[in-house]
Amino acid sequence: MKKFLLSSIIVIIGITFIGRLSYLQIFRTTANQVLEDSAVQAIYDYPERGFIYDRNGTLLVANQPAYDVMVIPREVKPLDTLEFCSLLGIDKPKFLERMRKARVYSPRLPSVLVPQLSKADYARLQEKMRKYEGFYIQKRSLRYYDTNSGANVLGYISEVNESDIRRNPYYKQGELTGRTGIEKQYEEVLRGVKGVKFIQKDRFNRTIGPYKEGTLDTLPEQGKEIRVTLDKELQEYGEKLMVGKRGGIVALEPSSGEILALISGPTYDPALLVGRERSANYSKLHYDTISKPTWDRALLAQPSPGSPFKTLNALIALQEGVMKPETTVRCYNGFYVGNKKRGCHCGGGLRNMNSGIYKSCNAYFAQAFRKIYEKYPTTDEGMDVWEKHVKSFGLGDYLGYDLPTGRKGRIPDKAYYDRVYGDNRWASSFIISNAIGQGEVAATPIQLANMTAAIANRGYYFTPHIIKEIGGEPVSDPKFTTPHYTTIDKKHFDPIVQGMADVYTQGTAKWLQIPGIEIAGKTGTVENFTKIDGVRTQLTDHSLFVAFAPVDNPKIALAVYIEHGYYGARYAGHIASLLIEKYLKGEITRTDLEKRMLEKTLEAEYAKPYSGEEFKINEYVW
Amino acid sequence: MNMSGKSVFKRVDWLTIFLYLMLVGIGWVNIYSTTLTDEGNALLDFSQLYGKQLFFIGASLIAALIFLNLEAHFYERFSSLLYIITMVLLLGLFVFGKNIAGATSWYSLGFFNLQPSELAKFTTALALAKYLSDIQTDIKKRKDQLFALLIILIPVLLIIPQPDPGSALVFLALVFVLFREGFPLFYLLIALVALIVFITTLMFGTIWVSISLALLIAVFLLVKKASFKVPLFPLFTFFFLAVIFSLSVNFVFENVFEQRHRDRFSLWLRLEKDPEKLEEIRKTIGYNTYQSEKAIESGGGFGKGFLEGTRTKGDFVPEQHTDYIFSTVGEEWGFMGTATVVILFTALLLRLVALAERQKSDFSRMYGYGVISILLIHYFINVGMVIGILPTIGIPLPFFSYGGSALIGFTALLFIFLKLDANRLNEWL
Question: Does the keyword Cell membrane feature in the UniProt annotation (chain A) (predicted)?
Fold first, then answer.
């Protein structure tokens, strides 16, 4: 016992030490995390954010300098707070509060004390800065917008928050990141990679020299400039036409899927979200829950597609062989479902497919829809076939475009109706509204534009996209260059396109023709409902229009959606017509038409549901 | 019996010498890394601490040769004299001592400051061995026990007022020699129980300590063998004494200790839970411990590499080349390095126990135990402090820490024993 006492003590001590050391160095270790090391300071060198140009190389977004006042709380020496506050242009309580926050964040890491000083403030402050130890000015680059449009599609940048930093440790407090739109989607390209210099510090935080002789230091990598597919002029013109209206416009180049314009109304000047007033402006925009300017209607609104959807049902009927272009249907100013009559505005009489389209006859397409379903022994099978055809046009699911927001839209399937009506307890007559684009179907404006592009191409589309070039190199992502073929054969498109062209020559949009340009289009007038105090209330119809031009070799396909604009040929039709002319001719010949669109607003219409009084809808005034 | 130099090298225990050289070598590499400045890079630059230490290592090796070649019986014969000389040197400090960093522990010899307490370690070990091995000494007698304790306590009492409580504490380790030689282990048990009660009282309070003790006794009574007669009265006496001790711990802690003592204990036992006060402790009395723990932690499994320790370079750990040298090992060589050093120390100490046990002469064995006790307590307290499991007590890590007196003192301690061991077969002469 006596002999082994000391030996056991020695071994026990050895084991205890090894245990403690393995806890410290293996389980709790912060090994070699140079950024966590209080003996090493990282100094960052930020590259300039890449510029954004439009499809023609016109500048959209550039940079401007701004100056942040930074503080390292641990290094702050007693100072004349009042003088300093007046220099910074903030009051003392605010100053103390920010100092406290900075200290809570970290006593030895820099925090932003006053962000984004103007050049004038900076000049005044710069000479006196030496007096205040622990404070310094960091130059930063802010966005500068060479346009006052495209706020939602361009997106904005703002300081990273805690959760951004947690999600991506690349970011440090005070750095900027793209929040929405192109800025978010192409953040890594535009941002570049910051450079870093590691400095060895001693325990008094004095610099001793470079850490590891600077072998870990990196140079900043410049942000790349990008060229987007937007046409600045078209975008700006579209936004001008949208003043006083709510809705979304998407214009595509059918031959490539490039997005020519992405307009959401109401919009705002992107410059509002830059600089010191940023957060005040942001709150104002964000909390406007009635007109929702930051809500991109072109990508997120999901109205029923209305009459433009009839073209799809016509195509499916042809493809399934249940109708021919010559097939006629008699319209009795409506049609019957069982013994219940549904109305039609086409004027009645015998319709073939051509006049069915250009007069937008409800009865004709109800018949087409019914026939598609009746071809198959069960409604389930008919539904599957119909759904497959419709979805091949990019409806009912995310399109896969390169912007960070979107909606699926809705193309109902048999499971959907089984849920609503019960298994096998429904038939085509239950869902006949889908024939005319009402009912359960829903699509975003960009989906409608894409559908139009697929018709313009006679049977295929390219995934819509916004990127054209990165750093001078054209982007040829197979995602965007592979055509997606619809399930409809090419030959069936000709009668449909003819019908859409006749919409302009003799149909619902005949007073919207553009001299010298052959257009194909389709109006849509979409019933819609809202809840006011819990009561389902019908509001004035949405005005919808899809079009492409020229009919042969189309250059532009678009969808215009105007909330509560009533007839499709009114607001949406006018705006579509003007945009096509602007894009193809570069100027507007029909100045009276343009003047009317620039002046007319729908504010009175939008105020109705909030008036608290009884109101009329679909008034004929124009 | 006067052995030639050649024979000494044949008989000396080379394994111990190898372990010694490893520790000294690794120690110097870390001192070099810790004290390297931009100015000097010549290894033998005596204006630099690492250069000085290299000189001390050379001096220690020469001293080691001398200790090995002196006649073995010299140590036994002159142990009383050496003891008295060092005690006089310690006494002389009160008059001629040089004050460095608040402690009057040195004689200034121009080039080099001599620290007599380092020398007293091996002379006290020698004197104790000499007294205990005397044919007339009987460790069972109360009078002889007290005299042996006196030999240990004299240097303690001389060193405490310097003040250098850390070094003084080291001498108490020599009681292990007494235990090996028949001093009743009962005392050790009492000391151990007292320590446990002390710590647990501070951590959990008297009530929990009393309840746990009562439960332990109850369990003991329940599982005892039927044939075994339990001495009930002493058991209860023990219990009441423990409870009274526990109560007095609280009283002493609250009323006798000063705030700085309380802070040290609360730091050691992690008693403080309030984050703001913890932050405060880290910046004041806990600074060294916190920084050395952080430095070791940042080394991870394999360390940052030789001369790459950022905290070492940035002088984050105070006294890093002396008492906190182990944190350099931790930062630059990681767990690989620290584990290696712990294993080297364990091997050396176990080897010394083996050597001590094979001695035929009582004097050699007792001195051997003295050597082990002193090395062990240094190693235990120093490393324990640096890795944050023991309170801050400033004593060097043997063979490792910067310092000439300490290195030569430890070398003397070790090599005198190696000489005795090499000579063990001649004892019959």
Answer: yes
* Res B6: pLDDT: 52
Question: Would you list the domain boundaries of chain B?
Answer: 5-181+301-426, 191-283
Chain A residue nearest residue B314, CA to CA:
A202
CA distance A202 to chain B (A): 4
Query: Mean pLDDT, chain A, as a whole number?
Result: 89
Q: Give dist(CA A185, CA A162) in Å, integer.
A: 20
DSSP 3-state assignment of A556? strand
How close B385 comes to chain A (CA, Å)?
11
Alpha helices in B36-141 (DSSP H): 49-69, 72-96, 116-133
Average pLDDT over residues B3-24: 83
CA distances from B11 to A147, B421, B426 (A): 94, 8, 11
Owner of token pair 């324990």: B384
Best A1, A3, A10 residue to mutate vs chain B (most B CBs within 10 Å): A10
The residue assigned the tokens 């310690």 is B90
Q: Are A263 and A288 in contact (CB under 8 A)?
A: no
Structural domains of chain A, ranges and CATH numbers in brackets: 40-228 (3.90.1310.10)
Closest to A466 (Cα-Cα) out of A478, A447, A453, A480? A480
Q: Are A446 and A557 in contact (CB under 8 A)?
A: no
Tell me the pLDDT of chain B averaged across its residues: 86
B304, B315, B369 ranked by CB distance to A32: nearest: B304
What are the pLDDT digits (tens) for A589-603? 999 989 999 999 998
Q: pTM of the predicted model, to two decimals?
A: 0.66
Closest chain A residue to B354 measured between Cα atoms? A7
Q: Is the pLDDT of residue B260 over 80?
A: no
